[in-house]
Design brief:
Distance between the termini: 76 Å
Number of strands: 11
Helix content: 40-55%
Mean pLDDT: 91
Strand content: 15-25%
Radius of gyration: 22 Å
Low-confidence stretches: 4-21
CATH architecture of the largest domain: 3-Layer(aba) Sandwich
Shape: globular
CATH class of the largest domain: Alpha Beta
CATH superfamily of the largest domain: Bacterial extracellular solute-binding protein, family 7
Order of helices and strands: HEHEHEHHHEEEHEHEHEEHHEHHH
């Protein structure tokens, strides 16, 4: 006769095995500049462990090239993808617009918007477009303008300078045109060398890119980093929702909301790695000029280019005005 404890152990093994068998295996293509050694990949690894409780065994495949990750997702080689909002813009403009030019000044406002998207059903409905659903956000660093000439700190002084512009980004060419600068096409592989070698006068990059792209070489002794954010980069988790349980999106957004603080810690660490000597402090007297320029760009990208979602822009304006009702945009309400 079998020992009762042995029988119980066998029963538990059988039950666990059965639960594992019922869980669906799904592959996520995960972009992280540092690959498996990166901070984002580490966060997603913990997330994947939790997902097994939702009936999905999430398998992660690391990519150090974002475009390849997005293309593999588009081709159906993976069930989910982790990439920046601007890269996923073609699938759904609503979540990608969280990265809108000049729309979110700091991590507190970004976290407020992520919390809203993870909490309210009305917002969640906008995160699904066709087969695709955005099921989480992670802050990926403030985007700054890196300049080879630190004397540039006003909008008018951008006229005529050469700006390295990502070939997949619809927003920056509009800004470059608005200020009278010159767009120079670039990609992630060329933007660092072009800036560092003087082929361009400026480039934009989230803070975590400062070290890997060796941008100090382009800054050298005369350059600087404008301390007025161009926007907030995010890594967004997108899935083909028909391949997942019905409640996966809500569970995923709630889980990743709980990981935002860790992502912010990582992003702030990247900000701190840029030496203080490089920061170009924008005077309070010229900040309204930058705000006006950013707003014009956002409206054009909404109305003429079809790159930004109007409902998201309106929600972001309300966030800014809840913090500071004296802003001109709070009366005009053009967004």
């Amino acid at each position: 006769m079998s020992h009762p404890l042995t029988t119980l152990a066998l029963l538990l093994v059988a039950l666990l095995g059965s639960a594992t068998a019922r869980a669906e295996a799904r592959l996520f293509c995960v972009y992280d500049p540092a690959g498996k050694a990166g901070d984002f990949y580490a966060i997603l690894s913990d997330y994947a462990v939790e997902a097994s409780a939702w009936g999905v065994e999430v398998e992660l495949r690391a990519y150090t090239d974002e475009e390849t990750a997005a293309k593999d997702y588009e081709a159906g080689h993976c069930d989910g993808v982790v990439a920046t909002g601007v890269r996923l813009q073609r699938f759904n403009r609503f979540p990608s617009t969280i990265e809108a030019m000049g729309a979110i000044e700091d991590y507190d406002l970004l976290e407020s918007m992520i919390r809203t998207l993870a909490t309210y059903e009305s917002a969640a409905a906008k995160l699904r477009s066709g087969d695709h659903e955005t099921v989480g956000f992670l802050p990926a660093g403030t985007v700054y303008l890196f300049l080879r000439d630190r004397e540039v700190d006003t909008v008018s002084e951008l006229a005529g300078i050469r700006v390295a512009t990502m070939d997949y980004d619809k927003a920056t060419p509009v800004m470059v045109d608005r200020v009278g600068a010159i767009a120079v096409p670039a990609d992630l592989g060329s933007i660092g060398p072009k800036f560092n070698n003087g082929a361009v006068d400026a480039c934009y990059m989230s803070a975590p890119g400062y070290g890997p792209f060796e941008l100090w070489r382009g800054l050298d002794e005369g350059g600087g980093v404008l301390d007025y954010p161009l926007g907030q980069a995010t890594l967004q988790v997108m899935i083909r929702h028909t391949r997942f349980p019905a409640d996966f999106g809500a569970r995923s957004r709630a889980d990743l909301l709980g990981r935002v603080d860790q992502a912010v810690v990582n992003a702030k660490r990247a900000d701190a790695e840029i030496p203080d000597k490089y920061w170009i402090r924008v005077p309070d007297s010229t900040r309204a000029e930058w705000d006006d320029m950013f707003r014009e760009v956002r409206i054009r990208l909404r109305d003429e280019e079809g790159a930004y979602d109007g409902q998201m822009l309106s929600a972001l304006r309300k966030l800014r005005c809840a913090r500071d009702a004296s802003r001109a945009e709070c009366v005009e309400k053009k967004e």
